[in-house]
Write a structure and sequence with these properties.
- The chain is of the alpha/beta class.
- The chain folds into 2 domains: 273 residues, Metallo-beta-lactamase, Chain A, CATH 3.60.15; 179 residues, Rossmann fold (3-Layer(aba) Sandwich).
- The chain contains 15 helices and 22 strands.
- Strands 6-5-4-3-2-1-22 form a 7-stranded mixed β-sheet.
- Helix 1 links the parallel strand 3 and strand 4.
- Helix 4 packs antiparallel against helix 5 and helix 4 runs antiparallel to helix 8.
- The protein is globular, with a radius of gyration of 23 Å.
- The chain starts with a strand and ends with a strand.
- The mean pLDDT is 94.
Amino acid sequence: MKIKILGASGGEVTGSAYYVQTRDAAVLVDCGLFQGGRQSEALNKPPTTPKQRIDAVLLTHGHLDHTGRLPLLAKRGHTAPIFATQATIEMTALILRDSAKIQAGDAERRNRKLLRAGKEPEEPLYSPEDAETSISLLRPVPYQKPVNVAPGIQAVWTESGHMLGSASIQLLVQEDGRTKRVVFSGDLGPRTAPILKEYEPFREADLVFLESTYGDRDHRPFKETVDEFVSIVQQCVKERGKILVPTFAIGRAQLLTGLLAMMFRKKLAAPFPIFLDSPMAIEATNIYSNHRELFDEEMTKFISERPLKDDLKTLRMTATGDESREINTVPGPCLVMAGAGMCNAGRIVHHLKNNLWKPGTHVVIVGFQSHGSLGRRLVEGAEEVKIFGEPIAVRAQVHTLGGFSAHAGQTDLLHWFSALAPKRPRVVLTHGEDAARAELAKQIQKRYKLKSTLPALGDTIEL
């Protein structure tokens, strides 16, 4: 068996994809888009050549850096089934449609410039039709039950606690008269995060591919972050100000909505207007509502005691542009969750333009802000920013909350691996920058006396 690493390696965190080839079959595990700048995005090509066999694609979860190259396969005529949990199927459809729309819009803007320069227009990376073809190939799988995915290969999905529907995958491969077990962790979530169930580790493997996004550190304790969020909201309500939260549509928006419901139920703040100002977040929230079987015990108990809608009577979902613009006329106190999460596009940019210069505004940053983004400049304390070419004074208070990550920190990564360590599998660390991978490898060596492989992009692991 050979496994070629086609993304999320060599210090690259995005573009997750593995090509697993046996004597009898070949499958892809994940097929993600590279993100994070021109150098990374230049890698966005189909992960395999037209001559390479693909019997199936197996998805760990729906995030774009794990699914976003599927339409490139469709564009080339790929028709093999794509296996995923039901919630992942629904999230993947939502994310791929949004991605195709963005690809088309970006191509249209580029082509206007090319045409003015007398150059030939370019095609988008892929079209909405390519995305729909990929979506039509999605096939649901259960948790914890082996599924025949290709000749001689069964796969088992188990909860990874990262996002709704996320999973780790174990391949059971019949080869050379024995069963070989290969485990892909996928992205693992922190054990302390609310709403979703904790990850469920596998206990047997000959080879383990382990993510290492935060392999060199732990996050701030979740409870401390919640307490700070509550304090900021209480302060802003007292001052009758506006709270702007740049929000990732899937995961972060639902977490914050749940925290606000908890605040109102426990009377930590009197109900005030809340706006979920993101069509994608609204759709994702509806998907969450349809999959309560994936919620953890605490969340299940919380919603069984009283429906969330009873706590969130002041929540308004603003799907249209006109509804979004109306928020500008709403006085404080109010809270606005809008995308994009890094303030690099979307409706949050308009809200920031209209409110950053007002002293009563609070901006709450709840996710990673990439270098060069508007969100990063706010986090770094810029006194003035440019939005749509206009200089805007930053008189708002900017708060950074670092404990809401959907990724496991070092302690949780090692805890997940501890269930497999007694079998002494080979360990391959991917999906992390070099410093994070190196530190996690050091800890695995120290605790379990196992040496880890830190592969480069394109390397092949043989079993």
